[in-house]
Amino acid sequence: MVSKNRLPVFLISISLLAFFSLTSCSQPVSVQDYEYLATLQNLAAQRESLLQWTGELETPPAKVKTTDAGMDSSLVVTPQNIIASGVQVEPAYPSLAGFTSLDTSLLESAQLQILQRFCETFSRPSNTWVSASSLMQSGQAYALVVFIYDFEQFASGKGGVKTWYLGKPFVSEQMTQCPVRLVLSDPEKTCADICVWLSQADGHWGISHITWLEESD
Questions:
Q1: Helices 7-24 and 31-50 meet at what angle, rounded to 10?
Q2: For residues 163 and 144, what is the distance between their CA atoms, to the nearest angstrom?
Q3: Could you tell me the CA-to-CA distances from 14 to 8, 52, 88, 118 in Å, in that order?
């Protein structure tokens, strides 16, 4: 499309072409005709010198560096920006060295409650057996007796359980295995890393096995 500023020059050029076409096919050009043509050429040159050429109406999109999440790398990443962008970002969970991720999102609320109550029993100096026995599946009390004996041997002289951590579980159709770290009050002693096995019977979750992830001195 020809802009409005360039329209006079365009018309003058068309006129020159038409004039040359007519005169070349008829009679020789006179001195007056040359003078007229020179005037037109000068006028066209003057008009062209006054034109201000504009840029392209549409420019190609600039290449913008983006992050892995598809956002402009020049933007400051904030929770508000991520929500506004509509990008789905997986949550990040902390982890413990030598243990595992602390992602417990796969645990059901009933499973989480059982594991927390189980860990709390070992933070108290007595009544461990009475407190934890109700968390076991029917017929699996022996597994608790064996573990309590092993744990008392392990923690002897090392203090009681100060705190604990639940790790990322392995979930199958019939069983959920959750790693548990029991941290003793003596900071120089090795933590007790165990695995608590949860199973479901008659619509209720309970502990069926308790095993050690690694033996510690």
A1: 160
A2: 20
A3: 10, 21, 60, 96
Long-range contacts, stretch 101-108, CB < 8 angstroms, 24+ apart: 101/167, 101/168, 102/165, 102/166, 102/167, 102/168, 103/167, 103/168, 104/166, 104/167, 104/168, 104/169, 104/178, 106/168, 106/169, 106/171, 107/166, 107/169, 107/176, 107/178, 108/205
Residues 6+ apart with CB under 8 A from 23: 29, 33
Helix residue spans in 137-217 (DSSP H) = 141-155
Residue pointed to by tokens 């933007």: 75
Residue-by-residue pLDDT tens, the chain, 217 positions: 444 445 455 555 555 555 555 555 555 556 565 566 667 677 667 666 666 655 555 556 666 566 665 556 666 666 666 666 665 656 778 888 889 999 999 999 999 999 999 998 888 766 667 778 999 999 999 999 999 899 988 888 777 788 999 999 999 988 999 999 999 888 777 889 999 999 999 889 999 999 999 654 4
Flag whether the pTM goes above 0.70.
Answer: no
